[in-house]
Design goal:
By secondary structure, this protein is an alpha/beta fold. The chain contains 5 helices and 5 strands. The longest helix is centred in the last third of the chain and has 20 residues.
Length: 166
């Protein structure tokens, strides 16, 4: 993994352990890198409850369906999508926190017309309202698939760290 991703995962893991809180992850374009960075921290079993790569509709149905109401017209790689993922991961895994990530890693855009390097990340906090979910857009401007995957995962973990440090 890259240094920034490793550092974000380590910081998030440290904060979660210190707080005695848990996390669940639902990621798409990052392909498991969010979960891997959290699991690279010794003692991760104290806070990491699980994660799913929901790169397809079949995976979403299998791992997340029924946790929260699916928003009308939901499409991947959008703010509503990652808010849904973060909330669903938190509820399905019964955690304090949830991360959602979705984007277009490249080298081309996605079927929705988003360019490569486009992603949304979200963190669902311990509350159960919409205000407890924070989302952020990322646009790298690059079509480098592996680099975008790392950038998306890093952005998701950095958003989690920001929320944990409040």
């Amino acid at each position: 993994m890259k240094a920034g991703l490793d550092a974000a995962g380590a910081r998030a893991g440290t904060l979660l352990k210190e707080r005695g809180e848990t996390i669940g992850v639902a990621e798409g374009a990052a392909g498991g890198l969010v979960s891997a960075a959290l699991l690279a921290v010794p003692g991760a079993s104290a806070y990491f409850r699980g994660g799913a790569v929901v790169y397809t509709g079949a995976a979403r149905h299998a791992f997340l369906e029924g946790a929260v109401e699916t928003p009308e017209g939901l499409r991947g790689a959008s703010e509503p999508w990652v808010r849904y993922l973060a909330a669903s991961a938190r509820i399905k895994l019964r955690t304090h926190w949830g991360i959602g990530e979705g984007g277009a890693a490249g080298p081309s855009g996605n079927p929705y017309g988003d360019p490569p390097g486009h992603a949304w990340v979200a963190v669902a906090g311990p509350g159960h309202g919409e205000a407890d979910i924070v989302a952020r857009h990322l646009l790298t401007g690059s079509d480098d698939r592996p680099a975008n995957m790392v950038a998306f995962a890093t952005a998701a973990l950095e958003l989690l760290v920001e929320r944990l440090e409040l």
